[in-house]
Amino acid sequence: MATSQARPLMRVFPESRTTNVNALNVGETERVLSLAAGGALAAYGLTRGTLGGIALALAGGSLVHRAVTGHCMLYHALGVNTAERHSPQASIPAGSGYKIEESVTVNRPARELFAFWRHFENLPQVMTHLQAVEATGTNRYRWTAHGPLGKSVSWEAELITERQNELLGWRSLAGSEVDTAGSVHFRSVGGGATEVRVVLKYHPMGGKTGAMLAWVTGADAHQQIHEDLQRFKQQMEAGAAVFAKG
Q1: Which among 175, 172, 142 is positioned nearest to 160, based on CA atoms?
Q2: Radius of gyration over alpha carbons of the chain, in Å?
Q3: Higher pLDDT, 30 or 197
Q4: In what order do the strands lie in the sheet with 152-163?
């Protein structure tokens, strides 16, 4: 089975490496805006030479600090984290949940494999734990998975990242029964073959939903995804996969 290292994303600011109380919780766009606004506010306040100007300068400095560190004390107090919004694994906080990563090399062009995945309705053909995936709106889908004892569980998710023939990323919506996120990466490796790497992350929750997703935390979770990818490889190479209508 082929493996690879994820290519780092280019960032304007470095990741925070401090403790949780100072952890990164401000999104990159906000940090850029905070830096610009804070610098301008501080410069303006200093030119006034008054107590009010000093207050403005201090406020600007606070915004600059927020931009540089990527941490906001108010966000921390409220439990808000905008730094996670644009990540393929955005709905799962760093350091929590269960992560599964598997890859396979398929002897088909990336564009064909991407086209299959782009219509998430196709996934139950190759992922046996999925019962159905249904489109509910623009880039939004309802996922239904098989659970133990003949039960099933459903959740709403949205497509948050798309790079043609390269990457798809999704996450569950706020308030969903299931807290999950995932991404699939397509990398051409020559000779018409493509490495497909799937990254899934789940946050186990208590109650009925947690019990129904207990299989995710088990030792066979990686094996399940490995078998799904092997099934995907076989069907795509044999031309047996049926594409859902776009």
Answers
A1: 172
A2: 22
A3: 197
A4: 98-106, 193-203, 179-190, 167-172, 152-163, 140-146, 130-137
Domain membership of residue 243 (yes or no) is no
3-state secondary structure (DSSP) of residue 189: strand
Co-location of 68 and 103 in the same domain: no
pLDDT for the residue numbered 216 = 43
How far is Cα 195 from Cα 214, in angstroms, rounded to an integer?
Answer: 29
- The CATH number of residue 218's host domain is 3.30.530.20
Residues whose CB falls within 8 Å of the CB of residue 179, separated by 6 or more in sequence, listed in order: 91, 92, 97, 172, 202, 203, 205
Asked whether the predicted pLDDT for residue 202 surpasses 90, the reply is no
CA separation for the pair 82, 34 (Å, rounded): 13
- Nearest to 104, CA basis, from 1, 222, 231: 1
Percent helix, strand and coil across the chain, each to the nearest 5: 40, 25, 35
- pLDDT over threshold 60, residue 4: no
Shared domain for 76 and 194, answered yes or no, is no
Among 40, 62, 84, which residue terminates a domain?
84
Strands 179-190 and 193-203: antiparallel
Domain that holds residue 28: 20-84
Residue 151 has a pLDDT of 73
What Cα–Cα distance (Å) separates residue 150 from each residue in 147, 212, 216, 238? 6, 10, 17, 31
Give just the sign of the alpha carbon dihedral 195, 223, 148, 88: negative
